Amino acid sequence: MLKNLIWPVWLFLLSSCATPGPPSELVPFYQVETLKPYDEVLAELEVAIAEHNFRITGHSRVGKVIRERGAVNFPEYDTIQFCNLTLAQTVLEISPQAIGFMPCNVVAYQFAGKTIIKTHLLPEDSDNAKLNQFARDMNPQLQQIVDFAAQP
Fold this sequence. Notes:
The protein is an alpha+beta fold. The protein contains five helices and five strands; from the N terminus they run αβαβαβαββα.
């Protein structure tokens, strides 16, 4: 019995020692809303991703799968992961820790009668000037992908 109580106490003590990363590791997000039909948003995301020379590496249709499991009225939720290996190599040569921002990711979901499209941006205020410049070059592309998908 005592042995069963030790693990939860140990985990609590261990987690209380964890500290958050520096502010430069906070991930900012870019989000837009649209009344455009959801399937059109997904199709436009695929087009915009390809037009920016990225390849889709994964697409999770979370909402669809939950509905298939029996939650009939569950809304749409999708995540699309994408990457450009040349850009990936560049950023990882600048900062191996940037792997935490990869692959690029965009989400789309339905909420309150609208479709929300959201992506994480790279932080532009780290202690690494080259990484900041890479982020300043990359973030507008990510925003353009989201904006394109939301256009009526």
